[in-house]
Amino acid sequence: MDEDSRPLLTINTHRGLYRLNRLPFGVKPAPGIFQQYIDALIAGLDGTAAYLDDIIVTGRTVDEHNARLNAVFQRIHDYGFHVRLEKCAFLQTEINLGFVINAEGRRPDPKKIEAIHKMPHPKDVSQLRAFLGLVNFFGTFGKDLHNFRAPQRSNRIYS
């Protein structure tokens, strides 16, 4: 956390004042701030991408993957971050970030599609919005999805 921001996040307890040294959970812009740090951390490293606190390292061969992974670990060390190895998954052929990513590309997570199929029919505007939000998450996968959503949008449920 930036030194100038620390006084803004001082908390008062029965044991006195405490000034935070790290960005706490619950601060509204925290995910965006953290994402900026992670993006800076992996900047210039080939075969890497970040999704929140997940860093994805790719390689055409195991040797290429390991070399890139070592570069990421060095950068993590240089930035003063730590890695919990028990939270890491190495040499994966497929990852799940709300959708499945593998060598062939991206596809919807079958569990999420099943959840859409099992959802009860919406009975009010709130339930319809929730359903459409879930369907919209997969908008890039659904051919002509805009045609499905058009009747719901024309009912002005979003106004």
UniProtKB/TrEMBL annotation:
Pfam family, one: RVT_1
Domain Reverse transcriptase: 1-101
InterPro entries reported for this sequence: DNA/RNA_pol_sf, Retrovirus_Pol_polyprotein, Rev_trsase/Diguanyl_cyclase, RT_dom
Gene3D superfamilies cross-referenced by the UniProt entry: 3.30.70.270, HIV Type 1 Reverse Transcriptase, subunit A, domain 1
Recorded superkingdom: Eukaryota
Protein name: Reverse transcriptase domain-containing protein
Organism for this UniProt entry: Ancylostoma ceylanicum
Gene: Acey_s0033.g2680
